Amino acid sequence: MDQDTEELSFTHKFEHACTLLGSARAVLFMSTPDHDDMDVHIQIHKTDASGKVLQYINIPKEDRDAVGMTKVELVNPMVYLGPIGALRASYRQIDQNLSTERWPEHNFSQREMLERGQIVQLEIGLWQTGIRFEAGEQLVLKVSGHPMTLAEFPPLRGAMQNANKGRHSIHVGGEHISRLIIPTVPSS
């Protein structure tokens, strides 16, 4: 797994084969002592039993071979790393009429800035996906203050900016039960 010091990883090892199918949702309790807002990005990765991150090439091998493609560029249209989600904390207000159990819909009509050190609940939906995990393979939830997805085109690598300043904290335990909710289909 890449070792970006600005990303936090949570890992779950599957004891039995299982398929993640649909939209996952993260509920994170977070704070920042340094600013009145924060951008939070999340991504799910799949690793093999040894912890190696698995990537999905979006073009079938036989099609790559047919056109002589020997190398696949690490860009989002060609390589899928896993579903992503993002939220600016000041837009955390949920629209109860549009949200579902699996997908939090946010009301973007007004911003609610944070007080420094204030712990807020962020509900972040991840794009729909279908990922099969065999026994021993791992699901990794990564949380960061910057986008972790691959760029759409090489010139865009590192070009996306955000408004983050300072440190962010994720709170776990007690009344702050940060968690990932995933829709699964048991495999036989």
From TrEMBL:
Residues 4-180 form the Xaa-Pro dipeptidyl-peptidase C-terminal domain. Pfam families: PepX_C. Signal peptide: none annotated. Gene3D superfamilies: Galactose-binding domain-like. InterPro entries: Galactose-bd-like_sf (IPR008979), Xaa-Pro_dipept_C (IPR013736). It comes from the Eukaryota. GO terms for molecular function: dipeptidyl-peptidase activity. This is Xaa-Pro dipeptidyl-peptidase C-terminal domain-containing protein.
